[in-house]
Amino acid sequence: EERGVVAAGTADGGVELYAIADGSKVGEWRPLAFDGSKGYKGAKTMSVAFAKIGDAVACVAGGSDGAMHYRFLAADGAAGFDEDRPPRPLLPAHRGPVVDLAPARDGLLVSAAHDGTMRVWDLALAADGDRTPEVCYGLGGYKVWLGSVCVDDKRLISDGSDNTVVVHDFSKSD
Asked: With 80 as the cut, is the pLDDT of residue 174 above it?
């Protein structure tokens, strides 16, 4: 909201940015390799989130194939994507559709996928553009598909298709 844009994931593997003020399209990105063919059966964008990384903001997309990519928004509050900073993948990919992304404090991002895993990523490493974000740790063992994830400074909460809610301690340790 502070940047004045919203992001929408599309069934053809894309991400589109729209201005909140007037609804005009201000950016388009195809992170999941849309091949342009009629009847495209490739990856779909399943989840999109904005993550603050230092003074910058990145758009992160999670796909139906488990792939995740990020791309910085234009600097200085301009609408659209930063054309000088190329999009990059987040590796390793999940082994199932990425169904939710939740930005957290200090450049952290949580991804949740139908492979039964959640991962906490350190996106702050990418702030200068020279380093690649890394997985800090993963949480696995979910027997039934994860549905969504929510995070604050103290808790990481997830739910699954079995109507179970799991709460993990996400507070900073001293």
From this structure: no
